[in-house]
Fold these 3 entries.
Entry 1:
Amino acid sequence: MTYYDDPQVGDMRKDFLEGDSPKGLFLLNAAMAIAYFLALVFLFEVGNRVLFTLLIAGEVFHLWQVLTFLYTVWDTSYKAPTNTSLRSGVDIFITVCGEPVELVEETVRAARLLNYPTYTINILNDGYVAGKDNWRDIEALADRLGVRCITRTVGGGAKAGNINNALRLTENPLVAIFDADHVPHSDFLSKTVPYFGDLNVGFVQTPQFYKNYAENYLTRSSWEQQELFFGPICKGKNRLNAATMCGTNMVIRRSALVEVGGMCTESIAEDFVTGLLMHSKGYTSVYVPEVLAEGLATEDLLTYSKQQFRWARGALDVIFRYNPLFMRGLTMAQRIQYLASASFYISGLVVVFDMILPLIFFFTGMVPVEISSMFLALVFLPYMFLTLFSIQRASNYTFTFPSLGFSMGGFNIHIKALFSAITRERSAFQVTEKQKARGNFLPLVRWHIAYLVVAAIGITYAVIRQGFDASVINNTAWVLINAAVFYPFIQAALPEREASTPVVHKPITKHKHAYGLSR
Amino acid sequence: MAYLANSIYRRAGRIQTQASRTSERMQTTLILGGMMLFSGLLSFFFFAGQSLRLDEAQSLWQTSRSVLDIFTVVSQDVHVPLYHLVLHLWRTLLGDSVITARLLSLAFYMASIPALYALGKLAYNRNVGLFSAMLLSLSPFMNWYGNEIRMYTLLTLIVILNQYFFLKIWKARAPGAWWGYGITIIFGVYTHYFFFLNLAAQAAFYLFRSDVFPRKSFSKLLGMALVATIAIAPWIGFVLYQGQLQNQEPVLMTPTSINIFNAFSQFIIGFQTDNLNTIFLSLWPITVLLGFIALRRNQRLGPESVFFLTTILMSMALAFIVSVTITPLFVSRYLIFTVPSLYLLMTSFLVGYAGNLGRWLRYGLIGIMAITLVIEIFNPVNPVKENYAQAAQFINANVSPQDVVVLSSPFTVYPVDYYYRGAAPLETLPVWDRYAYGAIPAFDAGSLEAQVNQVTADHQQVWLLLSYDQGYEKDIKEYFDTHYQRVLDKTFSDNLTLYVYKLRYDTPLSQVEKKLTLE
């Protein structure tokens, strides 16, 4: 049975947008999260004080994550624009930096078929300044398809600089931005532009859907990881006027963008920061919960890791350079939302601490809290299962174990990004590769494998020291959880993966596209 | 011609379908028969011949009376009379031996196996039904109570049938199911007071998911509540008429979180030593891992699973809350009716796991239950084995008419009396006449000396058999240790120990002492 024949797959383009918000469940979940935290802080005998302090710090972070998640997804209802007749002029920017010509061609062809009266297509060709071989081919493609090609000759500012350059050379009041691989549906503009009837709307964002999700284990897992964000989280942020600008599949009001100085060139997550700046200027945002463009997920772990690093570093920059807590012009809800999104990438540190706790016990016998009963399980298990259930209900049962594994397994990337953000190390913007890289990716999971090896030695040492007692078994169980959670990430790095698992190619025509193209 | 061929083809198809259905039915019957035979053989070879336990001795003692007396003694106990009446009839028809009495419980248990299959098939599918039935037949916990002269397997059977009709009402929309539901309610409320927890869980489920029920279900369910009330009303009246409940049973302790987890542990691995139970419970984080792995796309918690989950959690929670706030009644055996729900729920989860993982987890569960079943059978220090038979036989062989046998706690007189054939009189501490109306007198340390003098007067040796500590066992033992010369102690099973004391210096050497001297 292939992935597509599996009845559990459902409709990948819609399912993640159809979750609900059971308030009773969310309240119970919040109550249990707080109860668990308070129990841990006050009801257990403290073991090692340093470990206890670190444990509580980690739990504060977990509590923050759970409560902000519940706050975000509390209401994910969506209001369609009342006036759908607005048809302002739009400049379409297709950002290109060395992507294969065929891939760009598909996007341009789809853009040409947009069901909208007044728009201009611009290929923003950065191949020349980035030293890519095919920059001339892109110009030739533009000629062939009869669209404008803006090739920069003076670099700077990476993708943001490319967009800012095009802003100077175009004039329509609205700008739609697509990455080279993000193919718009024909109704993209007719479904997004009407929101600009409200003059306060600064930008309209739509989901980033990965049409190659079934290409391999990694593409599927990374899409599943995205579903939670582009589903309930983005829908909830929409309610709070805190939609995240994601850099593609979006429409921006030119005047608003100019007012904030164009796309931010000082961060490698130019979109995220630009959205923040626009919100701080009082512009509102809209998230349209409908897949209106389809792109490509990274197909190998190396590219995935680079992309994750860029996102993490950019998001963490928001905390360390543009701290939304103190930025003027933001509402409290927006401050919380930006902080919640950015702080997600601190989780790598907490994951590491949680996973080394058993190791510390194995080698030293030290524990953060002395537990002599099953009370911890009594408060932890309901909290954990309610949280999982809340996520499943909010995401319409699209959250999966691999997506959890990839979120937690990427701890090394998140930590690297964290230190890079703290030290303000300069990180260059790198365009995400659209073609699969070849090679051995096991070095990317060396920390995960090292953890398993050290844990195995630790378990042996602890068993020799004190036998198979309750503490050793309990900590071994936690190690097993970590090992299982790392498994999807390690699996994606295995070199023989491609050979052992047949790649299933799905004709894109299975889902009818509005623009009528098929590959 | 074509019509004829088509007709033959269709008929052949129907015959083939019927044949495959018949073959599947035959296969199912054989499998279920094999499971029932397995439980029967376990009983025959291992369980039925065990020593009578305290609770069983009480059942025998209570059902040896006339029907009216049975009503009286049961009303003063903490139970309802259906099982006692059936056992009374059973013993009248088939004989008085322990094995005959245990056969009744075995019959209910064996009937539960196909009943659970039917429930599982109705709730999920044939495979879930079969696997759950297999868990029931392998279950160390169920096998234990399948061979105990108590009402627990009858309760299990009635709850399975009651749940079957309850599901039939909303899944199959079968009007006839209301009759079955009503009848099982009447039987259920007379089987055990905890049957009301099952009804409470059903009411809660209706509140959660009234959308799955047919129209007018609310009024019918109210009618059923009325049936339950009217059915139990005469009994409640009789109990109130009889006066206060008598204290003739072991005192239950106020439960803690450990009791909740112990109940789950016993439901899966049965009765094990503290060591093994601790190891099993220490693995509780694995449930988090199982929860993580269960995160699959579109893997939803169907109403059936919500129903079974409600039955388990609500019953546990209510029993726990009442135990902590009003009076202790949290006992795993009282909650035995949640075991089928637990097995069905576990099976539905395991079936839902992807590919080989689900299969290996199912094998693992069967393996764990099979191994712990063997340990439960053969472990001589199994905490629930009460070897009154061996203790009594030892006393029979060694006691002299000049001695006295003293039992504490007093109610252990029931099982000892069943096996005791010695010449010395049987006494209890505190002194209690079980034929007199009223509760067992409370222990009073101040009157211990007088009571000991009363029961030991004119005797040469005292055979003190201590079990079921009610909080004063230590006082009694210390008294004898400090006032008399101990000549022997012997443990027959966990917490069942015999101490022999010389009451006077001129006592000639007893047979035991002679034996000990020779050794």
Entry 2:
Amino acid sequence: MKVNDLEKLKSEGIENLPSEERRRFLRFGLAVTGVFLGGSVLSLTSTRNAQGAMGPVPPAGKFPYKPHYTMVIRQNRCIDCERCMEACTKTNNVASYGYRTTILEQEIDLGRGEKGRMFMPVLCNHCNRPPCVRVCPTTATFKNKENGIVMMDYDRCIGCKTCMAACPYNARYFKEENRAIDKCNFCFDTRISKGESKTACAAACPAGVRIFGDLTNYDDEAYQLIHTPEKVVWVLRPETGAMPNVFYMND
Amino acid sequence: MNNIIASVMPQEGGLAASPSRSYNAIITVGGLLAAVGLAAGLHAMLIGHEHAYGVTREVPWGLLIAAYVFFVVTSTGLCLVSAIGHVFGVEAFKPIAKRSVFLAIITIIAGFFVIAFEIENPWRMPIYNMLSPNPTSNIWWMGTLYGAYLFFMVVEFALLQLEKHKVAGIFGLLGLVAGIAAHSNLGAVFGLLGGREFWHGPYMPIYFITSAMMSGCAAVIFFHWVGYKANGWKMSEKLEASLCSTAKLGATLIAVIMFFTTWKMISGISGQPPGKYEAMMSLINGPYAVNFWVGEVMLGMVVPFILILSARAKNLPVLFSASVSGIIGIFFMRYDLVVVGQIVPHFHGMGINELPHLFTYTPSLHEIMITVGAVGLTVMGFLMGERLFRGHLSEDH
């Protein structure tokens, strides 16, 4: 039937429309809306998942360490009480002129001209591709083959300081007392190898900022934190290609 | 052993060095400066570098690394320039070979003198370089190759003294290959550090070799002129012509370095690449601007380039002035290269309140004394060499 012919017909009026026909029309409308609404929801979800997959966390099994030690830092919880630094110094006999870990103060933009502060704990990132290890002429600094911790053999250190120049995170200093570079080793010699489950800094933190854990254990708190799809996880200076194992997030 | 030494050291012939008191006095002053530098280095080793040097956790490399680079750059350059003559057989460069090889040895020793006090535990280096080598480390390659380089150069020099030019040429070639490999590795020590934007990239090894050649030309002219002037000798025409050729080569290399530097600057500021930009601006318009514009650009490039061109590479006193200006400028280049590469804070651009825009570094007295000591060592070695080897003449020149 042509449109012109249709226009000539007399309107039957909606009052004569069967209710079944009305329901069918409404159902159709709802279905269309539902498809678009559901699609939007789905697209949001999938975006977040994609974000997680593309983030700084290395896919499982890419690196052969077991356990693969890591630290997750929930940055917004840090109150700069410095108990971690104190515990680290005490536990690892850190020199007065140096540090293995410290807390930096970061100025952040809250919008509408307002500024806020956040604290950013930093330590050795125990990188998967550590620049310091590559440059050491005598393998005095090396990546432990079992657990991936970047360690020091003090006796082999010639003190050329190339590792200090190479580290993107300023995580190393020369300790005169040892005549060698000193750095964070996730308390391996002082705590972890003795059966403790946390590093000194993580144990001392009253705010649950530092979560020490194992990337090969799916039930581990640190593993679960950085695999929470709706959370943004980041690392410091990813552009250097060092692939750090210290992850940052807010909760 | 005595026979070998006796046959290497010429007893007669050649040129007799000046017996004047002032000549001896300068040797003594050089020796004293070296002794003072040695004392400063040993003192620093004893009390700890933490207390003796100006370097910090943030800027771990300072004047001593710059001085080390300066001396080994000069040594490699002397080796490269001398090799043109006696390795590749270019006639015009043959008369400068002997003195240049000798000074390549002296300057690499001066470089080792400095690095021995820059490294905290130098005695561990030969041991663990052997016991636990790291083949991915540029420092390992550089140390090992410079060791080989010194050996080849010493053998080459001895053979040159014995007038065994053919075998000397083979060792010269080995020294040259070791020197180029070692020196480009020194460039790579800086260039392969991904966390240091100012250094990172292939530029450093290329720049190091090119500027070594430029330094070599300056050093050849400088030491030949001073050697002859101090002893009151008269240069042969061949030697004069050789120095003029060296100056021409030097001017060419200055032009190359000008070209390199220009593009390094432009690539550092164009698009404001993070990290690189801040470092570059510290040279152009920041705390290192005087070093850069006066030291590097004027003394290191513009002045020697104009002097050589205006003298048409012929007037030796002018060429000497160009070489002095160039050598001073090159020292600034090394210093800026080492220090500026480290002054941009690691967490730049992240709004960290504790961090300054740029870190600072000031050399300490110990560091300055060791550097001056290495200069004294070079002066002493150079002047003693003139006397011991009777003007470094070879029979055919």
Entry 3:
Amino acid sequence: MYWGSLSEFLEMGGYGLYVWTSFIITALCMVWEILALWRRRTAAIAESRNIMRSIG
Amino acid sequence: MNWSKYSAPLAFYPLAGKMIPWFGTIAALAIAVGLYIGLLVAPTDFQQGEAYRIIFVHVPAAWMSMFLYVVMAVWAAVGLGLNARLSFMMTQAIAPTGAMFTFLALLTGAMWGKPTWGAWWVWDARLTSELILLFQYAGVMLLRTSIDDQRRADRASGVCALVGVVNIPIIYFSVQWWNTLHQGASVSMTAAPKMATIMLTGMLLMTFGFWMYSLAVILSRVRCVILERESLQLWSKPSPVPEVVEVR
């Protein structure tokens, strides 16, 4: 382990704002993409079921 | 095993579904270990201090932004050459993830630029060509949505993706061809890496994780695209899409 304490880890040698913003926004984008795909999938399945009902 | 049958979207659908959990799990593991190494184990950089740790998301995102564009263009070429529906669907599925990684490469680059260069943004060749890549992804996506006829939309966005691939070597070699503020490559095919092994390990693990993540989300998106575009064909017995059939 490189860090001596938690506050040292969070401060990132004074660059905490830049480092954590980078990591957090990257994580948020990836989580958002997964959630958006989940919603799209649910909607697509519902739509397909509707079409199948209307046909058959 | 006859792999060619998987070029039919409805045959590919269940195969993609089986692969997603594997790629997702590998991605989660690689990213977890990569973050552990990058944030907790790797020592500080002697020049850039702790700000260098942005490399663990910036470089993987930038590599994926270029790599995914090339893969998207290859699918577009296959689609245009063989007139294969699944190829165009792959092109459609890759673009949003590629655009997201391009955005992240630019954003994390700005986060790195401010403390090290004193500027969020400079119009040097590397940054400008990467920004153009973001516009190219946007162009491929917008062109598709702006054309109602599906086949024409496929072909137009495919041509757009294919032509734009010329920008990839420009981005990659920009730091050699022009005098850029952006630093040169730390890792290349032709020279030994210019970084400590532990840093390189963390960065490569994160890149591998982002790659596996991309595979999982792109396969997941192509399944949505198949459902959206081939709904009428699901009415076959036996249908390959159990999620839809179970209400029958």
